[in-house]
Each structure stands twice: as structure tokens, then as C-alpha cells.
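ok so I'm stuck.
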Amino acid sequence: MLSIPKRVLKAWIASEALTPHLMPRQRNGAENSKKLLYVKESPEPWVLPQYGKQRGESAFYWLLYFGELKLDSVMKYILKKYPDNAEDERSYPKGTAALAAVLLDEQGKLIEEKTFLSSFAWSYGQLISGCPENLVNFQKVEANIKSNLEKRLKNNDDNGNRSSITHKVIDDAFVWLIAELKIPEKSVLKKFCAFRLPQFEAKQEPPDMELLNSFFIEDLSVALRAFDEDRAGKALKKYMQMESSKVNRVDVAKNIEKLKDILAPDKMPLVRWPSNYPLVLMQQAAVNHVSEELANGGLAAVNGPPGTGKTTLLRDVIAKVILDRAVAMSKYDDPAKAFKLDPKLKMRVDQNNYIDLYRLDESIMGYEIVVASSNNKAVENVSREIPSIDAIAKELQGKINYFRTLSDELMSGSTWGMVAAVLGNSAHCRLFAKTFYHNEKVGIRHYLNSILNGYDSTKLSQDDIVAIENPPSNRGEALNRWHAACKKFSEKLAESEKLRKEAQMACSMLGIRRKVIRLIAATQEQLGQLSDNYEKVKEEEKAARDELVRAETAETEVSLRVETIERKRPCFFVRLFCTRKYRNWRDSAEQARISLNEAQRIKKQAEKSLQDKEERAAEQENKLKKLKKEKLQHEAHLVKLEKMIAEERKKVGDNFADDDFWMQEDEILQLKSPWLYDDWQAVRSDLFAEAFNVHRAFIDAAAKQLSSNLRGVIEIIGGKALPGELEPLRRHLWSTLFLIVPVISATFASIGRLFGSLDKEQLGWLLIDEAGQATPQAAVGAIWRARRVLVVGDPLQIQPVVTMPPELISKIFVSLDFKKEEERDWAAPEASVQTLADKASFFGTCLKIEDEAEGCERDIWVGCPLRVHRRCHRPMFDISNNVAYNGMMIYGTIESDSEIGKILGDSRWLHVPLGGNVNEKWSEDEGNFAFGLLRQLLNEGINNPDIFFISPFRIVADNLRKLIMELIMKDSTITRPVSNDQRWIHDRVGTIHTFQGKEADTVVIVLGAPSDDGKSCGARMWAGQQPNLLNVAVTRAKRRLYVIGNREAWKNAGYFQYLDRGLE
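replied:
not stuck anymore, here's the structure
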């Protein structure tokens, strides 16, 4: 059996094969150069003179679409076979989709290897044939079908020369194709569309075409091959659960010691993003964890509930990467030495001109930052927020001089520097190339040329980038500026390192103090034990001395007795004749001598015992003296430590992270920034500015090399293919752009087109935003190309949008030997990029979620949790906190007045009893009630109210939009109509799904589904079976929330019980 990653990738490929590509539509007023034409009998459009080469065109091509699959009938069949209880609320595809497409030249002749086959059309044929298990085989059959289609379209004459394709050739190929795909004719419109593609640059190769299939199939196939060849990369392996995090998981909501460790000063980055507000505890913990965990590559996840500062966190990560590259740059005495020219490798930019291309030194590569998301708006928002003038503190705005003129033009607003750009789709790429590079007044090409060729400042207009940004007039001046910038940078870097070292010493002193206090306590305990032992030994010594005295007395007495007996010794003759008298004396003398020996022995023993006791007493006394001395030394050390700690505490202030700091109530602790104090924060902010000034000076001093490489990367962005021999330089060209624009954002759908040829881990950093909304397969290609991946999102907000019934996706997973319970770990909507990244992360916490659909409680492991919420007032905060986060979030919102609230009152549930005109989920009474709130605001003079009207159901949102438009137009009681009616209503009324990532002063939830019938009951339970919908709905509101609907019907609808409890 295949490994889990390989089976999952195959299942994802099959799932993506079911993604249709909608037919393009003719734009109103399109000129002949961009016409979309239907190919009828004859003449074909490519033989008509009016569609020949137009003025300014270098060439043109035709993209011919074969047949149109009717998606309504296709989805009707699929849903009948694979029912979906949420059918009404899913965004199933509508319209038509092509079966295949081919590229033709100006004369309508086939261009080989530019043929595209719709995976959706082929997959539909497999479903019709009752073979859903075959969906994993699309790529195996794709090449053969395309080859046979091309054979039928070559249209060679009798001499073997290729002719223009005729309608008959197209028609015959179409008939063959639908038979090959096993699609019934009734599902297909027999239409052939030709789209004229003008080219305005002298390119040598045909244009790259938009795919007919999912944007992700190719990247998923590359990943599958990477696993086959054991080159999947660290981040992708972790994402695909090849390294289990369960064994060493750390729950940071419970493990305070791990938090202390990760927030120690030596774990703090030397730099910060210079915002007006410091990161709070868990934001800083996340930044420190990411810096440590991804130092050598890999993947980390951060869980960001609504309003907890995900973008703020990302900015500090970006600041750390910028600093690291500035350090690498500053090691060069001449930035030009960071580039190496290979004279043999030149890039052709037009028929007559070539440019030199340079390799970058590895030391300044690996710092590229790509921000990616499945959400177009999220991508654009991040790229606009990062360079926004409001993103950095006012005191720093004058210290950074980083191509602000160019950034202002590109972002059409006020910025602080050229730090980020949106790429991805072709429109964004064209705008970027046009403004960033080609713009004759503010473009980077113009700026770099002024350094290379010199400039006359008297001839520059005031809005010229050269006049505003003041580049060096020659390379000598550029090098002088470079050395000056490096000097200031090194000084500020050293200052931040010094302050960090001091803070770490203070942190270490706390540890030493704890150790010394423990030593003093232990010493005191030892002293007590030793004193007791000493007293006992002294008592034993006294007893031994007394015993010796007794022994000496006894010996003296026996000695006297012996002497007395000796004096009574009989005379010689008595002894000679051994008389009785002598014998008696002799016995007495013998007995006395024995007694004396015994007394002497006892005395010796007493003397030895006393000596032992005296020695033990002396030993204990010495130990006591030594221990008392040690205690005095420890106490002196403690006094010294306390003095030093007091000095550091005075410097650090409330953020001095001693034991008392960590004992604070959670509501206070989570708002703190341990160890980070004003002076160090100011230096960290200044270092951010100096890092960008180093980048700017580096660019100035390497203008020649950067100018050449930038021309190359702009060609790539414009769609130019690199010749095989130049392909190894692609990474170097992209890195050149990232040297100037550190952050590039793009949707997952555009990553493959943008960075398609980059290999494993050739992008430095991938920051994934709103990851809870992305299908798990969407990020695979981006993750494979990145060395370090940070995933930020929330699995408890809107889940990924799926375009096929979950039951059909389940069939695919089952066909690859997955059990039903395993499927939810990998298949959307239950699985997302965030859920996979969370499971792969060891640093996080566990949330307990009530699964209303399953009727049980389940654990959800999430990555490092951000906990301080700063968007919503109460009760919205409390509802969200209870619905989704087990009360883990901390209320940090700075409350302010609501102009809408002054008119409409406090947040509450506006009960609308069942009655009136109810059509399925739509209640006209509820709609009128919602309009009544809007009318009040308009009549009070608020003609552009910051308010959203949202609903769980599409039909309710659609009808509400129509109702508001109708009533605004005809309601005579409205004194001031809403500004720009249609646009305002389009932007302010919709489903909950369409408002994730947005916020407003006030939100009105129009519930709908008020009836007691089965359909309404089912709709309510669908809406309330998971916390996600309600969580997103209530957290769109900053200051006021009004709920319109039948309270009795909704109060027991799953998670909506929390809404009932939280509102009046």
C-alpha cells in the first residue's frame, strides 16, 4: 500500500480534477483585437481580413474552445447521485465549461503541445460510467487524449503541409472527443469559441494560456513525484504528517514554564516592527517560537481568532527576516561582490538585444517572503497594510528612506516604503511591471539608470523619483553611503544586542536568585540537622569523659589493692614450703592482678571512646562553622543579586518577568510584554529603520547588477519563458526582486504560474494568511517551494468552500483505502490548510468543541494561540469566546461610542414571530424589520452607515438585497437616501461567508428559516451544527449586534443557543 502522503496527494489530485473552468465571456465593446467569436460553418474567423494583424501588434493567436458542458445539468446529475444536505448554501459551479482547447497561429494552424483537456469533462464521463474510483487516473490518460486530438486537428494536405483548421475538421474532432470522454450529447452544447489573443511584444514563443483545469493539479503532481524521489522538503513532510507532533506536544495554555522559556530575552528578536503598540504576551511568544522553530526550516502554525492581531504578528516576523538579510548584506565591503556574472548566460529581450544576468551569493538568498492565501481580499489587504503609512509609528516615518515615491504610486495611497507588492494574476502582474519598473517618473529602472548614467537635478520635475529620493550621483558616492549605512546599522545592532544581553542577565539573575534562595534554605536545614548532631555528639563526649573518670577511679582502687596485697606477701620459707597461708595469698594476688588488667583495659577503652567523641565533636564544629560561613556567603550573594535585580526591575518596569509577574491574573498577564521596555523597544524600532537603510544603500551600490536582473525578472512576470540554459538563474532573478521588494503576496491559485519552475525550498519564507479558509491541497505547491512556512488562521471561522458534494469526495478517499473517520483529517470542508498545520505543530493548545452533528464533544489541537481580542465590544466578544474558544480569549478591546448604537440602542435580539409572507428560508417580515433599522439611520442623517446585513442563507441575503433596493427607491419616508445605493447594498448585504475578514461598527444578522417545517428545521440545524458560522457572524461587529428572527425557533438550534444566552 502507498504511504499516507502519497494516497492523500492522489485523492487531492482527483478532487481537483472535478474543478471546472468556466467559459470566458465577451466583454462589452471589445475591439476586434480581443474578440471572442463563435466558429460557424464558414468562413472561419482566422481567414477574415478584419481579424488580421492590427496596428501595434507583433503577432496574434487564436485560442479555440471545443464544446460547452452545461454545468447545471451536470451538477443536477452529480447531486442526484451524491446528495448534499447543504446544497442550497454551497457555491456549486454554474454556466458552461469547455471540453478542451487548442492554440492556433494567425492562419488558424494548430500549434502542437498547446492543447488543453478539461479534467472536469473527463471526470464527469467517469462518473456517468459509474467509475468514480478512476478519477485518480486523469493524468495517466490526459497525454494520450491530447495527442489523439492533435492528430485530428493537424489538417495536413496531400503533400504533408499543415493547413488552416476548418469547421469540418473541428466538428469531426468534437464528435470523437465527446465519445472518448464518454459524455452524453445532451450535456454538451455544440459550440466552438475562438478567442483572439493579440501580442504586443516581440516574443519568440506562443503565449502561456490560462488552464482549463484546477490551478493545483500540476503542483500536486510535482509534490507526488517529490515524495517518490525523497525530495519533499522539511516543511511539506511536516505538513503531510510525516513527523508526528503528538509525542512532544506542549500545551502553552497550561505549561507556564515553556512560556517563560520561549519569552526569555535571549529568544527575543533584536528588531521589532515599529508600530504604536507592542506585541502582547502570546503574540510575542508566537514570534519567538517561529524564530526558533523555523531557524533551520520547517513549518509552524499560529491560531488567530478574530481580532487577535494576526497581521500585527506577521509584521514582526517580516521585520526579523529583513534584519537577518541586512546582517548578511552588511558583511560585504562592496555590494557588487554579492553578484557573479557568467558571460555565457545572457537573456534575449528582443530580436537584437541581450542582457547580462547575475548569480546572487547564497548568503543573501533565502530571505524571500511570500504571503499567500486562498482569499483574494486577504492577499490585497496584507500587501496594502504592510507599507501603509499608519503601519509604523510617526517617529520612525522620517528615519526610513525606502522608495516611498514608488510605493505611493503603486499602492495609490500614502505609504512609508516599497516593502510589499501584490502579484499573482495577470492584471496585478501587468500593473506591477508598469508602475514598479517601466514608469518613466517613479519606476525603479529610471531610478537605477540615474545612478549608472548620472543625472542633472535641475532638469528633474518635482514628482520625479530621482528628485525626491536623491540617489547617489555616481558609484563612488554610492559606496560612501553604503559604508555609512553599514556603520550606523552595526552600531544600532550592537546596542540592541547589548540591551538584550543585559535583559538576559537579569532573567538569569532571577534564576540564580531562586537557586541561591534554595541554597540558603537548604543550608539552614543542614545547619539545623548539624546542630542537633553536634549537641548529641557533645553529650556523647561528656558521657565518654564521665566513663573515663569512672574507669580511672576503678583502676586506682584496684592498683591500691594490688599494692596492699603485695605488702602482705609471705616470707621466703612460707613460700618455699607452700603453706596454706602462701596459697591463699597467691590466689588473692593473682585475682588482684587480673582485676587490675581489666581495669586498665576499661580505662584504655574509655580513653579511646573519649578521643573518638572529641574528634567527632571537633569535626561537627568545623562543619557548622563552614556551613555558617557558606550561608553568610549565600546571603551576601542574595543581597547583591537583590540589588542588581532591583536596578533591572526599575529599568524594565512592569514587564520585569519575575515570579510575581507570572503569578498575575491571566486577564492582566496576557496584556503584558515580558522583558520589553521602552528604551529597548526604541532601539529595536531604530534597528528596523537602519535595516531598511542598509537595503537601500545596498541597492544603490549594486545598481548595475540589480538593473540587469530586474529586467530579467520583469520579463518572467510578463510571461516570458526562460531557455533551458537560463533556468537555473530563475531563482536568482526572483531573489533580486525580493531584495528590493521584501514581501510579495499572491493567491494560492497564482503561485504555480508565478513561481512554477522554482524547486524545493527555493523560497525563503511562506506566510499563509486566513489558512482556515483554504482547502488543504491548495497550499501544497507553495509549501513545497518554501524553506520556512508560517501558517496563520483559525479553524473555527469559515471553512473552505468546496464545489463538489462531500459524499463524492468521500468516494475518492475510500477508493484509496482511507477509512471514513480518516477522511475528515484530509478532505475539505472539515480539513483546511490550518487544521493540517495545527496538527503538525507541537507548540499549541487544545480546544474542546461540541460537535452538534455527531452529538459529542471533540478535542481540536491548534497551533500557538493568540489570546487577546481587540476588535469587538461585549456581548459579541463573550458570545464568540464561549462559542468557539472555551473562554480562552482575553478581552482587550478599547471601547468607544457607536453613532449607530446611539440611534438603535444596545445590542439585542429583535424577535420576529412566525407569520406574514414566508417563502422557504426567506421571511419578508424579517426583511422589513431589517430595512426599518436602516431607515432609522438614514432619517437620522447617517447616509453611509458602517453596518452589515448578513444571513446564514444565500436566499435570505439575495432577497434582502432586492428588498432594500426596492424600498429605498420607493419609501417616501426616507429623508436622506444611502450614498451610492447599488454599490453600498452590494458591499453591505450578503451571506456570512462573504464577510470573513471584514468588520463594521454594527452587524445585523437576519436569520430567516422561521418555520416549523422540516426544511426550515434542517436549515437551522445546518447553520448551528458547527461554531464557525456564528463565530464569524458575531465577530464582524465591533460595537453593536442586532439579531432579527424567530427566537423561539432558533434558540435551540445547535450553537445558536449561545446567541440566545448572550443577548437580551
